[in-house]
Design brief:
By secondary structure, the protein is an alpha/beta fold. It has helices at residues 3-10, 33-47, 82-97, 121-132, 154-162, 177-182, 189-202, 220-233, 265-281, 298-304, 345-353, 367-382, 397-409, 430-437, 439-443; strands spanning 53-59, 61-62, 74-75, 105-113, 136-147, 165-173, 206-213, 237-242, 285-286, 291-293, 309-311, 314-316, 322-326, 331-333, 337-341, 359-364, 384-386, 414-415, 419-421. Strand 11 and strand 12 form a beta hairpin. Helix 8 (220-233) packs parallel to helix 9 and helix 12 (367-382) runs antiparallel to helix 14 (430-437). The radius of gyration is 21 Å and the shape is globular.
């Protein structure tokens, strides 16, 4: 079967699996603050001092709306909102500190957005020192942040580096001006070059560029030019994402162009395959779904050593069991449960200032959830999973394997008595394989469209 035929067959709406169960299938009754804290404390006990914890901080403010973005954000130019938000974040963290019997050991810290570099260095320093003064650092700690090439300054980079940050990710998307205008993200190459060079000169050891294929008006020549310019700067990591067109999600703002302006199916996939080959020809190695890295980077080493992990921050080299999410809409993960904060700035700040954990919804994982979660994590990180261990067997395994027979027949999967694996040339279909394991999706097909397309 030709690749274009396979794409037409398997390009269906499906989750990106930064969690299992995925958010739309969390229990409707949610999770109480008490249950979440008990789950968190169990995770702390099991992790001991070896793994440490991760902290994700959501900094939601942006000065303008990028119309490709599906993140929770607050569009404003009122920078006086920075300090009250920082104070709320520190108060939320203070409530979490009460759950620890001793100083937590911090292994991973990530600033996401929104636009973290919207914040000035004084406020960022106040936030980070307020957290770092309350923790011990893991011997292998790693701090990272997302920087906007248009407003990241040398002072941002130096200040964060002095606080322990060694990784930075820049959103590039595409260099074609017609594409940038459509997505309301005018960003010249010189801006990206400047911030990349500054980070490297200061001492950052891993720089990442985020690219997107499938954007409005994007052509083959645009991909060639974008990859060429990216390779010229040689970032250690490149994320090459499929544009997720989900305008039905409230507040996304993806109505700035017509759906007919988007490359479809095989045309869209051609953009990816071309970009992928250009990256491989330039010395990058495919590392997980939609990610590429130089062989010298820690992400590649984690992939090779089967240590790659995936959570709400995406792929990470640290397999911390506990991730605490701070800020509006941030999601926390104890492995045994998820908890998401209030999505609106007003509700988030009100609850924290009332001395409440601002949990909006959550999910306590069942024993079966935990088994399925492990299989999906294996597939997303290693492109294979096994049930040799009896603890990874589940009642519906036979039916799951039956659902996978069609993918096996089409050459997208290898199945043995105790293992399945996805061939290198079929990795684009990993989300389809995961969907066969997703018992909650199988048992309750959504009545409305919830997810972006899989391929």
């Amino acid at each position: 079967m030709s690749e274009s035929t396979l794409i037409q067959k398997y390009n269906v709406p499906g989750p990106r699996y930064t969690s299992y169960p995925t958010v739309p299938f969390w229990d409707k009754e949610g999770i109480s603050a008490n249950d979440w804290i008990k789950s968190l404390q169990l995770s702390i006990t099991e992790s001991n001092d070896t793994k440490g914890i991760s902290i994700y901080i959501h900094l939601p403010f942006c000065e303008s709306l990028c119309t490709f973005c599906a993140c929770h954000k607050q569009i404003t130019k009122r920078h006086e909102l920075e300090l009250p938000y920082i104070k709320t974040l520190l108060k939320e963290w203070g409530m979490y500190l009460n759950s620890f019997s001793k100083k937590p050991i911090l292994r991973e810290l990530h600033l996401g957005g929104g636009t973290p570099t919207y914040f000035n260095i004084t406020n960022l320093s106040k936030l980070l020192n307020g957290i770092l003064n309350t923790v011990d650092l893991h011997k292998d700690y790693e701090f990272s942040f997302e920087g906007h090439p248009n407003n990241t300054t040398k002072e941002h980079l130096q200040t964060l580096y002095d606080l322990g940050f060694t990784r930075v990710s820049y959103g590039v998307q595409d260099y074609a001006i017609k594409v940038q205008k459509a997505i309301n993200r005018i960003q010249p190459f010189k801006n990206v070059k400047n911030v990349t060079d500054w980070a490297r000169d200061i001492g950052y050891n891993s720089i990442s560029h985020d690219l997107i294929f499938g954007l409005p008006f994007q052509t083959v020549n645009d991909i060639i030019d974008t990859i060429k310019k990216t390779v010229e700067l040689k970032p250690e990591r490149i994320a090459f994402y499929s544009y997720a067109h989900v305008p039905w999600i409230k507040g996304v703002g993806q109505r700035g162009f017509d759906e007919n302006d988007l490359p479809k199916d095989s045309s869209k996939r051609e953009l990816y395959e071309l970009g992928k080959q250009l990256l491989i020809d330039s010395g990058y190695v495919e590392t997980g779904m939609d990610h590429f890295s130089l062989p010298t980077d820690s992400l590649y080493k984690a992939f090779e050593n089967l240590n790659l992990h995936r959570n709400f921050m995406g792929y990470t080299t640290n397999d911390t069991q506990l991730m605490i999410g701070l800020g509006m809409s941030a999601i926390s993960d104890s492995w045994y449960s998820f908890a998401q904060n209030e999505k609106s700035l007003k509700d988030y700040q009100k609850r924290v200032n009332n001395n409440e954990l601002p949990i909006f919804k959550g999910h306590l994982l069942t024993e079966k959830d935990l088994i399925i979660r492990r299989h999906i994590l294996n597939l997303m990180c290693h492109f294979k999973t096994s049930w040799k261990d009896d603890q990874l067997k589940f009642t519906e395994l036979t039916q799951t394997l039956e659902r996978l027979k069609e993918l096996e027949k089409d050459g997208l999967l290898l199945i043995t008595d105790t293992e399945i694996s996805i061939p290198k040339e079929a990795r684009a279909f990993v989300r389809n394989v995961c969907m066969a394991f997703d018992l909650r999706l199988v048992e309750k097909k959504p009545d409305t469209r919830l997810f972006s397309m899989t391929v």
